[in-house]
Amino acid sequence: MDTKRLILFVLLSFSVLLLWDSWQKKNIETQPQQQNDLSVPSPSVKNENNDFQKTLKPISTDVVQKSQLIKVETDLYSIDISSVGGDIRNLSLKNYLADDSEGYFQLMSDSQNPLLYIAQTGLLGENLPTHKSVFTSTRNNFQMSSDTLVVPFTYEADGLVVKKIYTFTKNSYLIKVSYDIKNNSDNSLKMSAYYQLIHDGESNQGSSMMPKYTGTAYYTDDLNFNKLSFDDVDSKSFSISANDGWIGIIQQYFASSWIVRDDKSRELYSKKIANNIYASGLVISLDELMAGEGVVFDSNLYAGPQAKSDLEQAAKGMPYTVDYGWLTFIASPLFSVMSGIQKMVINWGLSIILLTVLIKLLFYPLSAASYRSMGQMRELSPRLQSMKEKFGDDKQKMQQAMMELYKTEKINPLGGCLPILIQIPVFIALYWVLLGSVELRNASFLYITDLSSKDPYYVLPLLMAASMFLQTKLNPKPTDPMQARLMMMMPIVFSIFFFFFPSGLVLYWLVNNILSITQQWYVNKKIHAEALKKKGHA
Predict the structure, then answer these.
(1) Which structural domain, as residue segments, surrounds residue 226?
(2) pLDDT, tens digit, 9 for 90 and up, residues 167-197
(3) How far apart are CA 400 and CA 402, in angstroms?
(4) In CATH, what number is assigned to the domain containing residue 96?
(5) Where would a tag sit more exposed on the chain, N or C end, judged by fewer CB atoms within 10 A?
(6) % residues pLDDT > 90 (the chain)
(7) Is the alpha carbon torsion for 342, 343, 345, 346 positive or negative?
(8) Smallest Cα–Cα separation from 158: which of 179, 137, 130, 182?
(9) 342 and 301 share one domain
């Protein structure tokens, strides 16, 4: 097994990886169980006491209305909440820097520059407030000063008093959203509640080389976790009925979702509401509220990082929002091990290095077998070159002679292939771990300030190219001069890929190469000594 074959195997694996990922998004993850043509949030689920099939006026076409913005500051968030609808218009995460490292990372925005992403809720029923209704607030600014911060909004009309209350908890990315409704009118009230996220159709992330998903995701106990791309919603709106579950928007490193914990019948939906603008949410039918009565019901909005600990606390199925690709069964344990190491060494770069050492130790016997096969082929190179000169262009005789030589020396020329093939899935899985783990975002190592992005000075890719060049020197030299020149060029060509990969991934591969070179040098030295000893006895 020579370097050319190794490189071709890795290149092929990446090609298959990206093609498979694209196919999954188009054909597996985006298949809804049921689809209806929805133009508006509509409570197709039935109220326990009546058929609630009222035709609703469009409430989502005016995506953003001008309004007074209420400022909210917590330990984790900087948020603007609109007086119109009491909706979250802007949301920044204080524990995460923006992509340009200037200021906080803005997850939600109503500016449509660079993205539109807002959280809306409303009530459906006579005189009840939608996301277009105007609420009042007692203050313009709210600052967290204890373990919780309560931000109330009030709406009144025709004997109805509706309070929409946000409750923020310290060290938690779960935002409780409560409705407190008092029916002071003379009539009973049939009602439903809807919760939706508005997002434009842009991914705002990724490249053709490293695609990253941005779109709808949902979970129910029956259907488990699924994705629904905005492109699929273009052709047909999505709607399913369920008794549990959540729906949200996911992107690389971050997620938001509406979570209703009560086992209430609900309708999950995703639809196009304007040019390149989409709504993903759920509708819940509520019990009829009699005259003079009141009711309080809660929901939760998760808006934060795709950190495993936070997702596990948010809701069942939320950890699936972390995209580890189709090798999740390998990637998830790898991340757990890497995370455990990080807790001990307190540095993600060091944890990657130590994880690499552990993986190398795990595959040491396989690597040794591969390097032994290559070392034996290296010892045979002079004899193979002599055979080439002897037989010239007679490829058939050359092939027969080579097979006889391999048989005599008890060498399998393909003996190094299987060990490499076994290790490729681990490399691909680690690729997804390093690409999808928010924990590595803005994590520093030496001069690198963000292990999730490319090396700013290209030091690691250049060292990677040098290590690959050195490795070619340890491999058997091809008898064909053209192949030999190609082998010398491949490290340069292949290293170009690493100029665009996350620096954490390049760090892994560089350390792996250094360890491989060390192991291969040792094996080659041992085989060479055995060959000399054999010649001495000949």
Answers:
(1) 43-53+69-323
(2) 999 999 999 999 999 999 888 999 999 999 9
(3) 5
(4) 2.70.98.90
(5) C
(6) 42
(7) positive
(8) 182
(9) no
Residue 452 has what DSSP assignment?
T
Q: Positive or negative CA dihedral for 527, 529, 534, 538?
A: positive
Using CA atoms in the order 514, 515, 519, 520, what is the torsion angle rounded to 10 degrees?
Answer: -40
Three-state DSSP state, 403 = helix
Q: Do residue 297 and residue 357 come from a single domain?
A: no
pLDDT tier for residue 306 given thresholds of 50, 70 and 90 = very high
User: CA torsion angle for 36, 39, 44, 45 (degrees, to 10)?
Assistant: 100
Q: What residue ranges in 339-497 does DSSP mark as E strands?
A: none
Residue that has been written with the tokens 């055995």 in this structure: 530
| Structural tokens at position 381 | 């190179």
Binned at pLDDT 50, 70 and 90, residue 207 comes out as very low
- For the whole model, what pTM was predicted? 0.78
Q: Which residues pair with 154 in a beta bridge?
A: 136, 163
What one-letter code names the amino acid at 120?
Q
Query: DSSP per residue over 89-142, as a string?
Result: EEEEEEEEE-TTSSSEEEEEBSS-SS--EEEEEEEESTT---TTSBPB-S-SEE
- The letter for the amino acid at 290 is M
DSSP letter string over 70-92?
EEEE-SSEEEEEETBTT-EEEEE
Kindly state the DSSP code that residue 161 receives in the 8-state scheme. Answer: E
pLDDT tens digits, residue range 14-64? 555 444 444 444 443 333 333 333 334 654 444 443 333 333 334 455 666
Q: For residue 168, what are the CA distances in angstroms to 80, 141, 149, 172, 536? A: 14, 14, 5, 8, 80
CB 112 within 8 Å of CB 120: no
* Residue 29 within any structural domain of the chain: no
Would you say residue 342 lies in a domain? yes
Shared domain for 295 and 343, answered yes or no, is: no
Nearest Cα to 425, choosing from 510, 329, 348? 329
pLDDT at 301 over 80: yes
Q: End-to-end CA distance of the chain, in Å?
A: 28
How many angstroms from the chain centroid is the CA of residue 481?
44
Q: Which amino acid type is present at position 485? A: R
Report how many domains make up the chain.
Answer: 2
Alpha helices in 167-261 (DSSP H): 230-235
Query: Among residues 126, 254, 266, which one has the least CA distance to residue 196?
Result: 266
Q: Is 315 in the same domain as 339?
A: no
Q: Is the per-residue pLDDT at 386 higher than 80?
A: no
Residue 32 lies in a domain: no
The one-letter amino acid code at 109 reads: S
Residue 427: both structure tokens together: 């490399």
For residues 243, 244, 249, 255, the Cα torsion angle rounded to the nearest 10 degrees is 170
Say if 382 falls within a structural domain. yes
Out of 267, 291, 323, pick the residue that ends a domain: 323
Rounded CA gap, 469 and 493, in Å?
Answer: 11
Say if residue 341 is in the same domain as residue 319.
no
Burial class (CB in 10 A: 0-12, 13-18, 19+), 348: buried
On whether both 303 and 368 belong to a single domain, the answer is no
| Residue 301 CA from chain centroid, whole number | 19
Q: Based on the domain organization, do 377 and 423 belong to the same domain? A: yes
Residue 75 confidence (pLDDT): 96
Q: Are residues 115 and 246 in the same domain?
A: yes
